[in-house]
Amino acid sequence: MAAGAGAGATGVFALSAILDPLKTLAAPQAPAPFDPPAAGKTLPTKLTGSFVSAARGGVKTNWVIAMPPGQTKMLRPVIALHGKDGDANMILDCSVEDALAQLVAQGKPPFAVVGVDGGPSSYWHRRSNGEDSGTMVIEELLPMLSSMGMDTSRVGFLGWSMGGYGALLLGARLGPARTAGICAISPALYMSYWGCAPGAFDGVDDWQRNTVFGLPVLSSIPLRVDCGIGDRFFFSSSQFVNQLKKKPAGSFSPGGHDMDYWRAQLPGELAWMTS
Fold this sequence. Notes:
275 residues, 8-stranded mixed sheet, 17% strand, disordered N terminus
C-alpha cells in the first residue's frame, strides 16, 4: 500500500455528513502502554488488546494486530472487518499472519493488518439502538493505532462478507484523501432493502442512507472486489462492479461463501494492497 500524506484530511469527513453523521464521542479507554522495541529488538507478529468503545455503547472491544516477522517499528495498517457473527480474530482464522510473512519473503513492502470487534450483526454502521461500529473504527480505533506509533494518515480497508460491505462503506466515509485502497471480499451487498438479510438494516431509510451502490466517491479510491461464482452474493457483487465508473481489480472465480475461498484469495489480495 503506497504511503501518502494526510493533506486535505480536514475536508475528508464532509461525505460522512451524508452517509452517517459523525458525533463527538468520548475518547476510548486508553490501550495498555505500548513501548517501542529497543534497538535491535523485533516486534511480535501478533499484538492483542481491548478498549471500551463509547461509539458501541460502552462495549469492551477487542483488537488484533498481525505483522510480518522481523519488524522493528510499527507499520502502516490495513483495517480488516469481519463478517456476520465474527470478531477481531477472523484475520487469524484467514491465516493473515502466514500471508504477511510470505509477502515479505517475496520482497514486498511490509504492513500490518488490524482486526477489531464490530458486533455480530452491526453491518458497520449506526444502528437504531445507537451502537455505531463504523464510528468506532474511524474515531476510536484509528486514533488508538496512531497513539501506538502507526501512520494512519492513509489506511487500507479489507473485509469479508458483512465486513466486505463495511470496508466499502467506511472507505467511502473516510474518503480518498485518507483511504489508500479497499478490498471487498464476498461483500454482503443488497440491491434493495426488501432483499436484505434480517437485521442487516433497520428499515428502508437506513438502507438508503448506507447503501454503497451509486457512491461517486468510490470511483476515486482504488478498489478490488473478489467473489466466488457459487456465492449467494455473486449477482449483487457483479451488479455493483458493473455500475462503477472504473473497473476494479479482483475477479469472480470458482468458490463459495466460505473460509476455503477466503484463504485462497488472501495472498493475492494482500499483494494488491502493496501496489
